[in-house]
Amino acid sequence: MLKTFQQNSSNFDMDGHDSVMDFETEEHIGYTPPVSNNAGLLPQKRKNRSESWNHFTPMPSNTEMSKLAKCKHCGSLIKYNGGTSAMLAHLRRCSDNPDNAVNVTMHKPSSSSMENREAVVNSSPSAPKFDQEVSRMDLTKMFVAMELPFQKVEHPYLHRFIYGLQPKFKFPSRNTLARDILKNWDVEKAKMKTILSQNCRRVCITTDTWTSTQDSNYMCLTGHYIDNNWKLQKNILNFTQVTDYTGEIMAKTVKKCLNGWELNRVLSVTMDNASSN
């Protein structure tokens, strides 16, 4: 019996080794990794995260237009296979897109955008020819008519506004603007001299005087006349400072102003009700 056991044990060592190896090999080959709980779920469709999808509607996926998107503003169909850059480009061009009317940046345009804007201005057949001197003179007239301080010419928002209209315009400094206004005064004075000499027979003069809070005395000289069209006109001829309100000084000041206008056809001079008059 012991002999039989040893024989069987020997047979187990010889044959059992191969049996164990075969079992392990089969177990390794037939091994299946554990399956995740989500393995049976279908992959989720990626959401449209681009800002452009707020303005587009994708076409049905089961049609020939599955890679097209419809613009919510104008109804155009734009292909988006490979990205949304085409849709973004369409939004910038779409005339029905309300964002295009209010999308104004407060930063200075780049040099490339400036060149493009200049190209549009120069290429437009209806755009008038730009003249720096004429535009600069118009700027001085605006400051005079609106009674603006000279320093306002350096305001960045004014520069931004004019830059959007004409990038070529070069702004003058406040000192240059003051000199331009004096030059404009000389031009307007020459025009006024022509009007007084050719469009009226007689001129009536009125004066108005007052004292400022700094105790400085001023006089305003105004001319009143009827032009060749029988319309009553009046123009301020002088605004000057006087040393005193005595009759003698006032008379000399009025005479000096009239000589500066070469005006010798004065019908009357009316003063205000100051006691010195």
TrEMBL record:
Compositional bias of kind Polar residues: 51-61
InterPro entries: RNaseH-like_sf, Znf_BED, ZnF_BED_domain_contain, Znf_C2H2_sf
Keyword presence, Transcription: yes
Domain BED-type: 47-101
UniProt keyword annotation of Transcription regulation present: yes
Localization per record: Nucleus
Keywords, in A-Z order: Metal-binding, Nucleus, Transcription, Transcription regulation, Zinc, Zinc-finger
Domain of life: Eukaryota
Official protein name in the record: BED-type domain-containing protein
Provenance organism: Pisum sativum
